[in-house]
Amino acid sequence: MYKGLDQIRKIRNRFAHSHKSLSFEDEGVSKECKELNLIDLSSLYQNQNPRDHFLVQSIALANQLLILGHSLEHAEVGKDFRLSKIVKG
Q1: Which pLDDT score is estimated for 47?
Q2: DSSP letters of 17-83?
Q3: What is the DSSP letter of 87?
Q4: Taking the alpha carbons of 43, 48, 52, 54 in that order, is the dihedral positive or negative?
Q5: Are 32 and 11 spatial neighbours (Cβ–Cβ below 8 Å)?
Q6: Mean pLDDT of 62-84
Q7: What is the pLDDT of residues 20-38, one digit of tens each?
Q8: Using CA atoms, how far apart are residues 32 and 23, in angstroms rounded to an integer?
């Protein structure tokens, strides 16, 4: 999951910090999008363009994070951690 988040970050930063206009069809962006393989959809999307691949893989990762979040239990102050060690006051 971390690798997928890191790949999405790199693609996002490529767009955010570029001094020229970019598209998902640019060679570097297209290559990084193709490297996103959180779920195998090759049988469904034979000729998927890089932008759609990025979107589908990003949504898959978001769903994984959502499912993981629902499986976690909430921490309890005093039992799982000491709030006084976190908040300086």
Answers
A1: 72
A2: T-SS---TTSHHHHHHHHT--SS--TTT-TT--HHHHHHHHHHHHHHHHHHHHHHSPPP-BTTTB-H
A3: S
A4: positive
A5: yes
A6: 77
A7: 898 999 988 988 888 888 7
A8: 12
pLDDT surpasses 80 at 51: yes
Measured CA distances, 80 to 25, 36, 39, 75, 85 (Å): 48, 36, 34, 6, 12
Instruction: Kindly report the backbone phi and psi dihedral angles of residue 77, in degrees, each rounded to the nearest multiple of 5, phi listed first.
Output: -65, 135
Are 24 and 33 in contact, with CB atoms under 8 Å apart?
yes
46/42 Cα distance (integer angstroms): 6
Q: Please tell me the distance from the alpha carbon of residue 37 to that of residue 61, in angstroms, as a whole number.
A: 10
